[in-house]
Amino acid sequence: MSTAETAAPALTTSLAKADFLTDYRLAWESRHASLAGRKEVFMGKAKFGIFGDGKEVPQLAMARAFQNGDFRAGYYRDQTFMAAIGQLTWEQYFAQLYANPDVEAEPATAGRAMNGHFATRMLDEDGNLTDLAHSKNSSADISPTAGQMPRLLGMAYASKLFRQNPELHQFDTLSTNGNEVAFGTIGNASTSEGMFFEALNAAGVLQVPMLVSVWDDHYGISVPAEYQTTKQSISEIMMGLQREGEGQSGFEIYVVRGWDYAGLVDTYQRAAAVCREQHVPVLIHVTELTQPQGHSTSGSHERYKSKDRLGWEEAHDCLHKLREWLLAEGHATEMELDEIEKTAAATIKAARTAAWAAFFDPIKAERDEAVALLDKLVADTGTENTMHELVEQLKSNPTPIRADIVRTLRRALRQVRNEKKSFGRRSVQRHLEQLLAENADRYNSNLFSQSELAVGNIEEVAATYAADAPVVDGREVLQACFDANFQRDPKIFAIGEDVGKIGDVNQAFAGLQDKFGELRVTDTGIRECTIVGQGIGAALRGLRPITEIQYLDYLLYAIQILSDDLACLQYRTKGGQKAPLIVRTRGHRLEGVWHSGSPMQMILGSIRGIHVCVPRNMVQAAGFYNTLLRSDEPALVIECLNGYRLKEKTPSNIGEFTLPLGRPEVLLAGTDVTVVTYGSMCRIVMDAAKQLADVGISVEVIDVQTLLPFDTDHLIADSLQKTNRVVFADEDVPGGGTAFMLQHVLDEQQAYRFLDSQPRCLAAQPHRPAYSSDGDYFSKPNAEDVFDTVYELMSEVKPGQFPEIY
């Protein structure tokens, strides 16, 4: 099928006049919401605006194909669609524009994301999944272009698993036999991103019910299609994905004009049916769309569009075309449509007014309460002259925000710091503390799960060993752990490069595909970003994926989606959605620039909201997996590359014992110096500790085990009270993981109080490790480096006992 042959026919879907007029009303309500939103930004009542004007009609058609159980991963212009499926009211729309932090008023993000970022609440008050199979669902939007595509793939993949794996049929609140379609939307310019191509290729390989709509208005901000897309048409260049016939692999591709209501409705009905029934992915290229207000409130499209283009856009505005069609087909009269447009404008005005009152009235009340307390403080302290201007500024501010209130209270207390304590001063202090606590909930809460399945609530179960416990390769410990967990929970599955047939490159999944089948232990292509996205989407839908990134250095391919999507999911929905994905990878010591990395600085700085486990051996890794697979929080587990062939005893409760996150372990007790480390460095530090003991230096070795969370019980500070000296050692670049650990211990744990010597950091060289054993030795800390660093500390204290070596 060529794109020229895919023009949609006249409307054949059975719709009545009431349906047409409902769509017309929603379309105009959405348009008025866009127009009003832009004005609100320019009036200073909102910071920024990006709107869905020009995309209303195709979104109405898409909404008519969207059923209970379906999921959306979208684009920040989908306001019409969200309203049409009943998951967005216009008051909620304006509440998000104003950044109302009340989750009841703005349930998508509680004011945490700028407008146009939609989501449905998939969790109940206890943090448990709701009945997703019988509701219309939208995953939480993100701004990075094409960032919705990896997650979209995963949501569609979940439908395949729910349909094809009989063990999952029991979970009828998560799926109805895999009949759900994952609807994705994206702007035409964003299809230039690699994630778009990667996700479409993967969907074609997997044959999953993923329906992607490309809203094509010819521009990406100011850049026209000729600079964006080969042939200026994403459908033209993707035609190689078109399947050759029913039963063949590939995509169905449709092209339809964005102002053709009849064609759009029919196209979406046909496309969704193919997608839903046959699990064939679909691409719908919606062309000839307009953007009446330009890209956003940050600029005007008159600056870069020609007069001819602007004239064409006015003539082809989808709302004007819809009106023409309704009149031409005899579905409505001029008077009826005029009344609908008038009523739509009034509806939006009322919604905007109500949303502003709901947002601003509580702030005004907080301001008035603060002013009353400050007036009392002035009366108590006699500081009229110095505080009068401060209080008047707050009192006369017509549109204060909460920061204005807190800022004024803090500055007022600063001015009376030399005054005696009074009732007024104590009242202001208490009120400030209350406001800070309330705003911490509004703006800083829900980075992690608040449910009973949060990591901290998982019961700790110690590993037990039989007298004749088998001593095996570390990989066999992991294999036994995964085997036990797969038997325990049918929702668990694993995907990744080489994970399936050969059981991963280090064989921790060896034999498990034969035992549990291809649906649960699955090979993927080389596509790290969408491997992670596949896991995010499936986890959102209630499954328990383990996604493997073959080497830690390759995490860079996926770090953006981990950071912008997974890490902030619970936060940006204020506990409305969760995706307890486990990302499994391996790194640290080995050989070569790209197979021995420890980029902890990058990881720690970019994925707050994801736990980071750095086990020193495979028994510890198994304990973390057992904990995480019972929890509902995401995690990255970094195994030691050089640990798979090392011998370890196998616990008798291999699938049951759990390790708490955030609790270090003392590997060796000592009295002179504390060395804090993790992962493969543990063995090196232990080797150095033995050598140091030979010269009379007693080293306490602590394995932190997890970096996020980090030493929640302050065990390291306790150690420093005893040794008064510390070395932080890891394989990251200088200023990376060692600096992270040092800041936690000295700053947060305030362990600087116990130090008698300068704290030392021992890191790798500021470059990737060179190849060969010599490259490893000279690139990363070795036992001699550890020995020398600790020895130098003791030499400063007791030079007579420990004279200089060099």
UniProtKB/TrEMBL annotation:
SUPFAM superfamilies: Thiamin diphosphate-binding fold (THDP-binding), TK C-terminal domain-like. It comes from the Bacteria. Residues 472-646 form the Transketolase-like pyrimidine-binding domain. Transmembrane segments: none annotated. Signal peptide: none annotated. InterPro entries: DH_E1, THDP-binding, Transketo_C/PFOR_II, Transketolase-like_Pyr-bd, Transketolase_C. Pfam families: E1_dh, Transket_pyr, Transketolase_C. Keywords: Oxidoreductase, Thiamine pyrophosphate. Its cofactor is thiamine diphosphate. E1 component of the 2-oxoglutarate dehydrogenase (OGDH) complex which catalyzes the decarboxylation of 2-oxoglutarate, the first step in the conversion of 2-oxoglutarate to succinyl-CoA and CO(2). PANTHER family: PYRUVATE DEHYDROGENASE E1 COMPONENT BETA SUBUNIT, PYRUVATE DEHYDROGENASE E1 COMPONENT SUBUNIT BETA. This is Alpha-ketoacid dehydrogenase subunit alpha/beta. It comes from Hymenobacter antarcticus. The lineage of its organism: Bacteria, Pseudomonadati, Bacteroidota, Cytophagia, Cytophagales.
